[in-house]
């Protein structure tokens, strides 16, 4: 802060190492819940996908985007969320530790702060934690491949979990039997089990579970009613439309071209 007084101890600052992120690269911060396998069990998450938990993750990610600077897109699934800072960001002089810890702490405190909105009276039993890492991507292709990698991971895990829990919950198998049944199966085999044995079409399962959650800033027209006073002193409601920039959630494919063609502002030259 403003206190410029020097002491003989000041030299210890020189022990700090430089962790400036390379210029011109997208800075990705990925968070992952610490030991959430246990956290999910202790908080009785519904298997395989607890929508309260997903909602809370997304709410916390929204808080990160709204409170911190320069995040252009975020992608989340399971207990993880990735945040992408624009490549020209100079926030905190691009210091990796500052960016990562601000993301992790804003996310963690929001997770606790908004817990009740999603879990109601069910108590939060202990303070959850999230690890963070920073990765730099120098090209749009690399960044898109990173996001594709996370969405592919979501797809593979969700397909496995969907079949696994269907075999257990609707097929009467034990978890060990379900595990054995799925050993060595490919995506096509899993689709087939779901379809022929349980009449489930994987592709019509909920998009939030199959595709994860993508958050972006979008300008949209919003209409609100405002109470105004007329010249004659009478009060009346009028509709006011204005364009507002807000964080919006998508549960769509982000691997292919259409999403990026529809939102050309996310990636820079
Ligand atoms: P930055 O985000 O850069 O850290 P900052 O506003 O947090 O900005 P600091 O240099 O960290 O700046 O200073 C923290 C400030 O918080 C103090 O200057 C003081 O005003 C306030 N503060 C912190 N703890 C207390 C406390 N226990 N009692 C009163 N004020 C406090
Ligand atoms: P680590 O600390 O190494 O990350 P972890 O136990 O968190 O260990 P992950 O690989 O991150 O392991 O897996 C997260 C686990 O959290 C999932 O396997 C699942 O059991 C649980 N989980 C997370 N989100 C949900 C959800 N929305 N619904 C149900 N289970 C969930
Ligand atoms: Mg301080
Ligand atoms: Mg401070
Ligand atoms: Mg992990
Ligand atoms: Mg985890
Ligand atoms: Mg995880």
Describe this protein's structure.
The protein is globular and about 70 Å long. It has 269 residues and is of the alpha+beta class. It contains 9 helices and 6 strands. A 6-stranded antiparallel β-sheet has the order 4-1-3-2-5-6, with helices on both faces. The chain has a domain of 136 residues: tRNA(His) guanylyltransferase (Thg1) (Alpha-Beta Plaits). The two termini are 37 Å apart. One magnesium ion binds next to β1.
Blueprint (SSEs and pairs):
Layout: E1 26-33, H1 36-42, H2 51-67, E2 71-77, E3 80-85, H3 96-113, H4 115-119, E4 130-137, H5 140-169, H6 175-182, H7 187-198, H8 207-211, E5 213-229, E6 235-250, H9 258-262
Antiparallel strand pairs: 1-3, 1-4, 2-3, 2-5, 5-6
The structure holds adenosine-5'-triphosphate (2 copies) and magnesium ion (5 copies).
Catalytic activity: a 5'-end ribonucleotide-tRNA(His) + GTP + ATP + H2O = a 5'-end phospho-guanosine-ribonucleotide-tRNA(His) + AMP + 2 diphosphate + H(+)
Keywords: GTP-binding, Magnesium, Metal-binding, Nucleotide-binding, Nucleotidyltransferase, Transferase, tRNA processing
Binding site for GTP: 32-37, 78-79
Q: What key attributes describe this structure?
A:
6 strands, alpha+beta, magnesium ion binding, binds magnesium ion, 269 residues, six-stranded antiparallel β-sheet, Alpha-Beta Plaits, binds adenosine-5'-triphosphate, GTP-binding
